[in-house]
Amino acid sequence: MEFRYLGRSGLKISEIAYGNWLTHGSQVEEDAARACVRAALDEGITTFDTADVYAGTRAEEVLGRALKGQRREGLEIFTKVYWPTGPGVNDRGLSRKHIMESINGSLRRLGTDYVDLYQAHRFDYETPLEETLRAFDDLVRQGKVLYVGVSEWRAEQIEQALKIADEMGFDRIVSSQPQYSMLWRVIEEEVVPLCEREGIGQIVWSPIAQGVLTGKYKPGQPPPAGSRGTDDKGGADMIRRMMDDDLLTRVQNLRPIADDLGLSMAQLAVAWTLQNPNVSAAIVGASRPEQVVDNVKAAGVKLDADVLKRIDDVLGDVVIRDASKTASPRTRP
């Protein structure tokens, strides 16, 4: 396993992180989830990403039990806050009340005294940003949170938060968690340049585009039985937007590139995201341990300029670079 600094902070994280958005507590049984976590640990992954909303808080519980007994100092545990976790009007958003109650719930479910990174899961247009940042800063001072980050925030939102933090002496954002893959490159235009300048690292989700970049979805054919393209638990809507025969044909044309490099399609996709120097880690999920083992082989892979150009030539205009031209992802990474 290779390790990278999280932005300009002193925290090192495994460049392949394990995430449990669509698996723990929902799609797979707990024994299978634990087997995947054990495989991640065995392969050298030390960074684990979850959120309070995943599987209605159950994902945090499963991850906490799976990591029980591990040396806490050797792990980096990330979680998030924003989406509804209860029926009350204050059981959502980034108000001080919700943040303070949510971190206590997350710590209890994860079985830990602190999280290494606490992330604002979306931008809250209804709460003053100063209130949110002060609450995060208080959690850092209390020792419940070591670093703070954001997920799916736009460049101008991150910039506004940095300005307030600098003016008020709050801990600065050290990470951004966006969707990023060969097919979805929206962050490259504005988010990445800002973050490079400000010392913020990307922890990218969906590097294999919900499985599309594995090549298992074939043009003109229905999704394979049991794949995310056939379920209704959060990933299907996203995949359906990519079930275009032209796009799927181009993905199949990536296979010779992967073969030439001795990589699987998934390994090529994950390795591609890690070529971006602003990316601190790529999050992979799994429902089977062998998927973890396969994805981890992307760690340390270097793709030269000729390979990157071949990939761009194959994908052409199916790459999304401007989110305003398509539906923005509404699911929860």
UniProtKB/TrEMBL annotation:
Indicate whether Oxidoreductase appears among the record's keywords: yes
Gene3D superfamilies assigned to the protein according to its UniProt record, in alphabetical order: NADP-dependent oxidoreductase domain
Record key words, sorted? NADP, Oxidoreductase
Which Pfam families does the entry link to? Answer: Aldo_ket_red
Q: Which residues does UniProt call coiled coil?
A: none
Domain NADP-dependent oxidoreductase, chain residue ranges per copy: 15-314
Region ranges (Disordered): 216-236
Does the UniProt entry include the keyword Phosphoprotein?
A: no
**InterPro entries the record matches:** K_chnl_volt-dep_bsu_KCNAB-rel (IPR005399), NAD(P)_OxRdtase_dom_sf (IPR036812), NADP_OxRdtase_dom (IPR023210)
Q: Please give one Gene Ontology molecular function term for this protein.
A: oxidoreductase activity
Q: Which GO terms describe its cellular component?
A: cytosol
By sequence similarity, the record places it as follows: Belongs to the shaker potassium channel beta subunit family.
Supply the name of the protein: Aldo/keto reductase
The beginning of the lineage is:
Bacteria, Bacillati, Actinomycetota, Actinomycetes, Streptosporangiales
